[in-house]
Amino acid sequence: MLTWNVTYHCKSGKREEFYREISALGVRENSQAEEGNCRYDYYFAAEAPDDLLLVESWTDPAFQQAHCRTEIFAKLQELKSRFCDGVEIDKFDY
Question: pTM (2 decimals)?
Fold first, then answer.
């Protein structure tokens, strides 16, 4: 099992717009439908008004790697460049 906690550090005041855009793109729904996906959930950070947390889990790292090669993942990268100042990733493999 592979779990990534991805913290998107959005530009000031842009978190909700970023979330609306990724929701409209269907990132969560498409990712959950991919083989090996166990979890793909977003959370708003109460203490950091510009941070958005993604928790994603995969049965095997190969499925997560395949996810990173999808068309929707490429579109997500475009949105990140528009709305985010940075991204932090904590990886857990167990």
Answer: 0.94
